UniProtKB/TrEMBL annotation:
<keyword id="KW-1003">Cell membrane</keyword>
<protein>
    <submittedName>
        <fullName>ABC transporter permease</fullName>
    </submittedName>
</protein>
<comment type="similarity">
    <text>Belongs to the binding-protein-dependent transport system permease family.</text>
</comment>
<feature type="domain" description="ABC transmembrane type-1">
    <location>
        <begin position="66"/>
        <end position="255"/>
    </location>
</feature>
<feature type="transmembrane region" description="Helical">
    <location>
        <begin position="115"/>
        <end position="139"/>
    </location>
</feature>
<feature type="transmembrane region" description="Helical">
    <location>
        <begin position="233"/>
        <end position="258"/>
    </location>
</feature>
<keyword id="KW-1133">Transmembrane helix</keyword>
<keyword id="KW-0812">Transmembrane</keyword>
<feature type="transmembrane region" description="Helical">
    <location>
        <begin position="188"/>
        <end position="213"/>
    </location>
</feature>
<dbReference type="InterPro" id="IPR000515">
    <property type="entry name" value="MetI-like"/>
</dbReference>
<dbReference type="InterPro" id="IPR035906">
    <property type="entry name" value="MetI-like_sf"/>
</dbReference>
<keyword id="KW-0472">Membrane</keyword>
<dbReference type="Pfam" id="PF00528">
    <property type="entry name" value="BPD_transp_1"/>
</dbReference>
<feature type="transmembrane region" description="Helical">
    <location>
        <begin position="70"/>
        <end position="94"/>
    </location>
</feature>
<dbReference type="InterPro" id="IPR050366">
    <property type="entry name" value="BP-dependent_transpt_permease"/>
</dbReference>
<keyword id="KW-0813">Transport</keyword>
Length: 267
């Protein structure tokens, strides 16, 4: 893989993390400040990316919306990893009945598109950032349960696990010291790529009005509002959409690089 592309993607992710942790470093504008006399102004020296229908600075809303958007992506994958990992370990280490029950339930979940499953969960749980993150995470649990199960079965049959049992180590100690780290490590690398998909799903839920409620800044909700002004304010939807696209590409590039590195390949 092109090293320059990986470095650029990594630099973008570092900038995004900084924007999420310290947004004031990137803009001095208040993302919630309303200016009725400066609505839908094009990019200028005062407002580098223009203003929205309420006169709020688009750059400030994108920068301050970074935290919420990243939270939706990384938080959802964390939920899927924790619960999917536990189910995958149970399926890989349990008896045939436990394995069949978990895998059949996973098959049912995988039969539906992830966004559709997320919509079902958020319909029951209600809207909001936390519920959107939970809904996307639940929708991804079946995928990670299958991945962890496959890795657990492979590790369970390995020679070093058999040697650990032969040395007299107890089952819980073998699972914690040998099975769990080696089963989850490859899945963590793949999960990096999944963050981009989860981020897009989070933006989609906000676009539909089921994610972060206004006036809190979030890229998907900004796109949802911007579609009403697309003929009058091209900048309003362009820059939040570019932020989503650039973030997903950067996460995917870094995730692929980590996967190739874990496999001992460079391209």
């Amino acid at each position: 893989m092109n090293r320059l592309g990986v470095y650029l993607a990594g630099a973008v992710l570092v900038a995004l993390v900084l924007a999420a942790l310290a947004p004031h470093l990137f803009t001095g504008q208040d993302p919630l400040a309303v200016d009725s006399g400066g609505t839908l102004r094009p990019p200028s020296a005062e407002h580098l990316l223009g203003t929205d229908e309420n006169g709020r600075d688009v750059l400030a809303r994108i920068v301050y919306g970074t935290r919420t958007s990243l939270l939706l992506g990384f938080g959802a994958i964390a939920v899927a990893l924790v619960f999917g990992g536990l189910l995958g370990l149970a399926a890989g280490l349990g008896n045939r009945v436990v394995e069949n029950v978990i895998m059949r339930l996973s098959d049912v979940g995988l039969a539906f598109p992830e966004l559709l499953l997320a919509l079902v969960v958020i319909t029951v749980a209600g809207g909001g950032t936390a519920n959107a993150m939970l809904a996307i995470g639940v929708a991804n649990i079946p995928s990670y349960a299958r991945l962890v199960r496959a890795q657990t079965l492979a590790v369970r049959r390995s020679s070093y696990v058999e040697a650990a049992y032969a040395l007299g180590l107890t089952a819980p100690r073998v699972i914690l010291r040998h099975v769990l780290p080696n089963a989850v490590k490859p899945v963590l690398v793949l999960a990096t790529i999944g963050v981009g998909t989860a981020l897009v799903a989070g933006s989609a839920l906000s676009f539909l009005g089921l994610g972060t409620p206004p006036p809190e800044p979030e890229w998907g909700s900004m796109l949802s509002t911007a579609r009403n002004f697309i003929s009058r304010a091209w900048w309003y939807g362009l820059f939040p959409g570019a932020a989503i696209t650039l973030t997903v590409i950067s996460v995917t590039v870094v995730g692929r690089a980590l996967r190739l590195r874990s496999e001992g390949r460079t391209s």
